[in-house]
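Batch manifest, entry 17 of 40.
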Amino acid sequence: MTEAWVTLAEAAHHLQVAEETIHRWIRKKGMPAHRLGRNWRFQLSEIDEWVRSGGAAPTDEDSDPQIPPP
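Output type: structure tokens
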């Protein structure tokens, strides 16, 4: 049996993150996603493997910029 494709909202719910976080991970971290017209589709097995391999790990770019003291 083939794995079902899920929507952006379902992927965000699966990972318990905001939909904007999913968009950012696609752009900046290479999260596995497939574009169908204007919509994104995901396979949860690909997402889970990506997370396990460190794809969602925080980087220096993810941290808030430090504001130097006056």
